[in-house]
Specification:
This protein has about 650 residues and is α+β, with helices and mostly antiparallel strands. The protein folds into three domains: about 5-150; about 210-505, no CATH class; about 580-650, no CATH class. It has 24 helices and 20 strands. A five-stranded antiparallel beta sheet has the order 12-7-2-18-17. Strand 14, helix 13 and strand 15 (about 410) form a beta-alpha-beta unit.
């Protein structure tokens, strides 16, 4: 486009198309930015549209400069001096709103549309789901069609024609996008190096557990991780996904403490069964926990294995990670536990829950071994009317006493907490283990889905000669919880998410279908890591795919794609040269050229015929007949075979 076209004033419908596309780009950011930022940007866009509708002039620099200063100062005050992801996006949104206010010419609108393209990328800093991708593709098509219409000052591309042109351009870019995706050297770390968000609003286990913490988590149907087994999956009752191990109790809340928080090289266990191998795709939860079935045999890359068999990531899990691990379902470990650790596993706050302490003393008196104490402790839950529920009553000053002797209604954290308390009070070292239990197999992808609603807590007791032994008191009250899942264990009125308690098979299949698509997207698009890129290239015959070789390969593929696109474009042009009517017309133009009347660049057949007839009046009737027949054959849909034959005869006899 020439300079005059860029300086042309913008039409009203063109401005409204630009404003609408920019609103569509900014809409997902509205819920993430401070209210004043969203309101200010929305007001600026609305004001610019109102000025155009009222045929008013855009505001001058006397207003834009103070607004720029105020907007920048507001971002600094809201986010602090450090320019992170959120602050950068907010500042960009304000600058875009200010740019909208000064739009007057095509050049201004083009700059605003280009800023809109950049804002599309910023949406992927927050979400990389399929829905986000599809929405941004639609917005990009809108922006591209607006850009096409802006460059067409003749007004020939209107409405759907501009959109069709934009879609054609985007389709032509698909091969290049695929080549760049597959071959561009991948880098580790967060996108663009911006600091990632905190854990605010993210569901997941924490380093503490109190009454109600896991039951609230079980109301969420968010996916915690997905698992693909190398062999048939173990039965549900064997799927205890080990997470944080809690040691210290203050009378109400269990916390990690400092016993199992460090990795040691002297962790040993004895396996009673062959290992189960599987791959876990863990969703970001901004903590260090990495989950594996009891009992993991080793630490995957970038993780450590603690002395109590927690898997911990070396850095918070801020992005989706994928790791291979193996576990033994039957094992023994910790038989030679240190005395200081065992003393820590017996510690209780003094004076709390006296009824539970007395019950533990009675259990101790009627038991001759620690295993009998454990069995009698489980009998407490089996013999009394305990109920498994997500909505237990509130507990007061002595929560263990109130739960064991009064309410007897609780979730897994109530049962694990009270059982470990009883064991410690009876002199048996014990601790609480939190994690997930079970999962839902998705037959569409042959992988297991573990949701936040599968969050679970159980106990581990230390038995002399055997070490740490898993005991699940929840299973003593509700065996269906570990055999069939949480939906089968809770009454119909409990507030479970619909995707967890699918009452209709069709609804369940739809949920699983969407999850299978999301899993494919996560594995093959978002999970296309440097390691997977290197494996793909190695499998296709490229050895040692360094970034230098990747660059050469990428340039070669891009060049081949561009050459192919050029050939396709030429192919669209070649039919016009092979067209008999076009050949006859060119021959006719050459004959007229020999008589001194040459066709001008860009001159249409009818205009040329009028000018030639004026310059060659003796041949005017024949010239007009040839031109009209050519137009009818090429553009008016006349029979091309008969018309081309008649045209050739007229030209030959000319």
């Amino acid at each position: 486009m020439n300079t005059r076209g860029h300086a042309a004033l913008l039409k009203g419908r063109e401005l409204y198309s630009v404003l609408g596309a920019l609103v569509a780009v900014l809409a997902p950011h509205a819920q993430r930015m401070p209210l004043w930022v969203s309101g200010a940007v929305g007001a600026m866009i609305f004001w610019r549209g109102w000025l155009t509708w009222r045929l008013r002039a855009a505001p001058g620099k006397w207003l834009l400069i103070p607004l720029t200063v105020l907007g920048t100062a507001g971002v600094v005050l809201s986010y602090g001096p450090r320019l992170g992801r959120d602050a950068a996006v907010a500042l960009l949104a304000i600058m875009l709103g200010l740019k909208v206010l000064e739009i007057k010419t095509v050049r201004d609108a083009t700059v605003a549309v280009c800023l809109g393209f950049f804002l599309i990328i910023t949406n992927f800093l927050y979400s990389q789901t399929i829905a986000t991708g599809l929405y941004m593709v639609a917005v990009m098509a809108w922006l591209t069609s607006t850009l096409v219409a802006l460059q067409d000052r003749a007004g020939t591309l209107i409405g759907g024609q501009a959109l069709r042109t934009a879609l054609t351009l985007l389709l032509q870019a698909v091969p290049l996008a695929i080549a760049l995706f597959l071959l561009f050297p991948r880098v580790q770390g967060p996108l663009f190096g911006f600091p990632q968000a905190t854990s605010t609003g993210v569901s997941g286990l924490s380093d503490s557990m109190s009454p109600g913490s896991l039951s609230r988590l079980s109301l969420s149907d968010e996916v915690a991780f997905r698992v693909r087994f190398a062999s048939p999956a173990p039965p549900p009752q064997s799927l205890y996904w080990r997470g944080p191990v809690l040691w210290d109790f203050d009378g109400r809340t269990w916390t990690i403490g400092d016993v199992g928080s460090t990795a040691t090289g002297g962790v040993h266990h004895e396996a009673n069964t062959p290992p189960v191998r599987y791959t876990v795709t863990l969703e970001p939860h901004y903590m260090h926990w990495v989950f594996a079935i009891d009992l993991p045999t080793h630490a995957p890359p970038n993780t450590v294995l603690t002395s109590d068999y927690e898997l911990l990531s070396t850095r918070p899990v801020r992005n989706r990670i994928r790791y291979d691990v193996s576990s033994h379902l039957s094992y023994s470990y910790g038989a030679n536990e240190q005395a200081s650790v065992l003393l820590r596993a017996l510690r209780l706050p003094r004076g709390d829950n006296p009824k539970a302490v007395e019950l533990a003393r009675q259990i101790r008196q009627q038991s001759s071994t620690d295993l009998e104490i454990v069995r009698h402790g489980l009998d407490v839950f089996r013999s009394k009317p305990f109920f498994y529920t997500l909505v237990p009553p509130e507990l007061g000053q002595n929560p263990v006493d109130e739960f064991l002797f009064e309410t007897r209604r609780g979730f897994c954290e109530h049962y694990a907490s009270s059982f470990v308390f009883l064991m410690r009070a009876a002199g048996v070292p014990a601790r609480v283990v939190t994690g997930y239990q079970g999962g839902e197999m998705n037959p569409l992808g042959e992988y297991l889905i573990v949701r936040q609603s599968d969050a679970h807590a159980w106990a581990e007791v230390w038995v002399k000669g055997e070490g740490w032994v898993r005991v699940d008191p929840t299973a003593a009250v509700s065996p269906a919880r570990v055999q069939s899942g949480i939906a089968a264990a809770l009454p119909a009125g409990e507030p479970l998410p619909s995707s967890v308690r699918a009452r209709w098979e069709l609804v369940s299949r739809i949920h699983l279908g969407f999850d299978a698509v999301a899993n494919f997207w996560n594995q093959w698009v978002l999970g296309y890591t440097p390691e997977r890129q290197a494996k793909l290239l190695t499998d296709t015959g490229f050895r040692a795919p360094t970034w230098q070789r990747l660059t050469v390969l990428l340039m070669s593929v891009v060049g081949a794609v561009l050459l192919l696109l050029a050939l396709l474009v030429l192919r669209q042009l070649l039919p016009a040269r092979r067209d008999p009517a076009a050949r006859s017309w060119r021959s006719f133009c050459r004959k007229l050229g020999k008589r001194g009347t040459r066709i001008r660049p860009g001159e249409g057949p009818r205009d040329f015929a009028w000018r030639a007839a004026a310059e060659q009046p003796a041949l005017g009737a024949t010239i007009s007949a040839i031109a009209e027949l050519y137009i009818a054959v090429r553009y008016a849909g006349q029979d091309p075979t008969l018309g081309a034959r008649r045209l050739r005869q007229l030209v030959n006899s000319f």
